[in-house]
């Protein structure tokens, strides 16, 4: 029986350079990327018409508005700890150093101060994190005041305020927060929104 002879020569393909390149790209993505932040309230950002490449980092306090709740996100653990101690002394509540350290690991403040000790003791419970009832406007104002004092005390700089509101939140609810900031002489703040790319 006839058996054709192949004229092609078979070459061994070295796959190691491809794996090395894949490893370099993967390492770059892991080191340069940041994990997505999950908030206790669902926020669908409104769509904006311009694009700003600045990335908020540093001494930011982010006010979360959504699902008829108000919450505050503070960036630095030392600011959160100092603000908690100041809030405790203001309302005659004592927090142990262990409480303050554990509270420093939380990122979003959405529990009223009277229930704060219970929340801190069960912080690693995800159901407690997502079931926070939110802050009143007065308590949010107090947290902002104390966090601004703590930022000045710890870092000798001013706190920059960021608003992050759900697209379905009625404007009067946002206006209450803006008016509260105005009472503290905070007339400059940033608003986070998603960008709709023009085609």
Main features:
transmembrane transporter activity; transport; two-stranded parallel ribbon; transmembrane; 14% strand
Describe the structure.
The structure is a single chain. The chain is α/β, with parallel strands linked by helices and 199 residues long. 41% of the residues lie in helices and 14% in strands. Strands 4-3-2-5-6 form a 5-stranded mixed beta sheet. The chain has a two-stranded parallel sheet with strand order 1-7. The chain starts with 15 loop residues before the first helix and ends with a strand. Belongs to the ExbD/TolR family. It is found in: Cell membrane. Keywords: Cell membrane, Membrane, Protein transport, Transmembrane, Transmembrane helix, Transport. It is a single-pass membrane protein; Single-pass type II membrane protein.
**String of helices and strands:** HEEEHHEHHHEHEE
Q: Give me the count of strands.
A: 7
The backbone outline, from C-alpha atoms, is elongated
Query: What topology, given as strand order, has the largest sheet?
Result: 4-3-2-5-6
Q: Count of helices?
A: 7
What is the strand content? 5-15%
Radius of gyration of CA atoms, rounded to a whole number: 25 Å
Termini separation comes to 64 Å
Helical percentage: 40-55%
The secondary structure category is alpha/beta
Q: How would a textbook summarize the main sheet? A: 5 strands, mixed
* Low-pLDDT residue intervals, each spanning 5 or more residues: none
Q: How confident overall, as mean pLDDT?
A: 84
GO molecular function: transmembrane transporter activity
InterPro entries: ExbD
Protein name: Biopolymer transporter ExbD
Organism: Mucilaginibacter rubeus
């Amino acid at each position: 029986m006839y058996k054709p002879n192949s004229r092609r020569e078979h070459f061994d393909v070295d796959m190691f350079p491809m794996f090395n390149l894949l490893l370099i790209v993967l390492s770059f993505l892991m080191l340069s990327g940041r994990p997505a932040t999950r908030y206790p309230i669902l926020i669908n950002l409104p769509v904006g018409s311009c694009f700003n490449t600045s990335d908020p980092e540093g001494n930011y306090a982010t006010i979360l508005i959504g699902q008829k709740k108000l919450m505050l996100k503070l960036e630095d653990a030392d600011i959160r700890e100092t603000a908690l101690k100041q809030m405790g002394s203001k309302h005659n509540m004592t927090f142990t150093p262990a409480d303050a350290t554990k509270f420093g690991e939380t990122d979003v403040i959405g529990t009223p101060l009277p229930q704060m000790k219970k929340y801190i003791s069960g912080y690693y419970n995800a159901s407690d994190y997502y079931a926070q009832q939110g802050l009143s406007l007065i308590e949010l104002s107090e947290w902002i005041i104390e966090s601004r004092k703590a930022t000045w005390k710890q870092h000798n700089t001013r706190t920059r305020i960021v608003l992050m509101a759900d697209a379905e939140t009625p404007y009067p609810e946002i206006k209450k927060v803006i008016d509260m900031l105005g009472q503290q002489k905070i007339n400059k703040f940033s608003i986070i929104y998603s960008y709709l790319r023009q085609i």
